[in-house]
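User: Working on a comparison across species. This one is Cathepsin L from Eptatretus burgeri. Can you predict its structure so I can line it up against the others?
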Amino acid sequence: MLCRAVQVTMNRVFVLLVLVVAANALDWESWKAKHGKSYKGRGEEVLRKRVWESNLQIVQQHNALADQGQASYRLGMNVYADLYNEEFMALKGTGGLLQAKDKSSASTFQPLVGVTLPTSVDWRNQGYVTPVKDQGQCGSCWSFSATGSLEGQHFAKTGNLLSLSTGNYGCNGGLMESAYDYIKGVGGVELESAYPYTDGRCKFDRSKVVATCKGYVVIPAGDEQALMQAVGTIGPVAVSIDASGYSFQLYESGVYDYPRCSSTYLDHGVLAAGYGTEGGKNYWLVKNSWGPGWGDQGYIKMSKDKNNQCGIATDSCYPLV
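Assistant: Here's the predicted structure for Cathepsin L from Eptatretus burgeri:
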């Protein structure tokens, strides 16, 4: 009887494993169809599925903690779930560590005195922010970050929201301040429709300039209160962050609280488009440039007032128009 009971148990375990494998296979096929994925050969698909399954475990384990109230954000199997984190950062990062730039020629944001800031800000609701864009397989996040802030400041000045070109800056990494120096030097920036975001030789046409930049203002390094004042009164601000973790790659919703990320190793440029509070946790509303299929429709809520977590206030600036 004991042997028979053991055999029955083993059979049930086997059936359960078969069902799990079948469910994963079905999910894999559904995920591929949803995101339009196709691979060059059988070997590549086997590798990508293996990575996908590994990421699925990460997502499930983390979300189980979120369900228990032990995590303030959730992960998801987004369009990048078939990539190792190292591959993903090579594909989407800045091309390396964001290096400090001489900012002696820039203006420095002066702390505001006697100004009551709103408890929450979302510049999307005021018309300052264009739809989420996708930098593709190019380390040009810095140009999207810089352009996003310029779009907001141009709107503040003219009342006209324009989607500005992110071309002409390069795919090998850079700094938002360098983008503003470039725009100032050449005399302005074109519309995205006039100078689309495609790989190839630079083809800037000064006759098509629609927005200009006279310089830029830097926020005191590491000062989240100053950054809050700038975001709360000026508009969206270009910021640099550490986005190197698996949890950032697979982020889906909630307030991203990741104490292990660095406040000095900055590898990604994004746009601080507001701030607020959710579930008792303060956050920065951050617009990314990985397309609307990543995160919360292209956005992430990053922890605010937590010792400059992920370096969001380490290197931030906005243009003067």
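For your comparison, note: The chain has two domains: 2-75, 85-320.

User: Helpful, thanks.
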